[in-house]
Design a protein that fits this description.
The chain is an alpha+beta fold. The chain is 47% helix and 19% strand. The protein folds into two domains: 72 residues; 68 residues, no CATH class.
Length: 145
Amino acid sequence: MSEIQEFDATQDATSAEAAENTENVAAEAADENVDAAEAVAENVEAVETAAEEEEEKKPKRGRPRKTDAEKAKPIKRSRKKDWSALILTVDQDGAVDYNIADDFSQIAAINHKTFGLGVITKVLDETKIEVVFEENKKVLAQNWL
């Protein structure tokens, strides 16, 4: 074999070896890219799940939606009947004059300068009472200041 032929054979072997190495490197890089892509997809999914969970924890803005039971209209009652029945249950002479700073949690009836005689039906909380007057029902403040 001549020197040129030996050189060509060596070149061919080297080229084949280099091509095989290139294919191996490319396959490894492809595997790494697939692994990296899978890791990125898992991270994206985890972030989306965390964002959804965080969104669920946040209070909704605006009014909460009513359930079907809440949407049902309450029974309309005549205020006159309520008033006439309630006024019989209290001592009208024992009614206390209304003052926003007073506590009415133990009192049954009040005299209001605008609405007149009222029967306390509920103590809603420390600062609010529900009172039925002859013409309407009101929520009034108590223990103010």
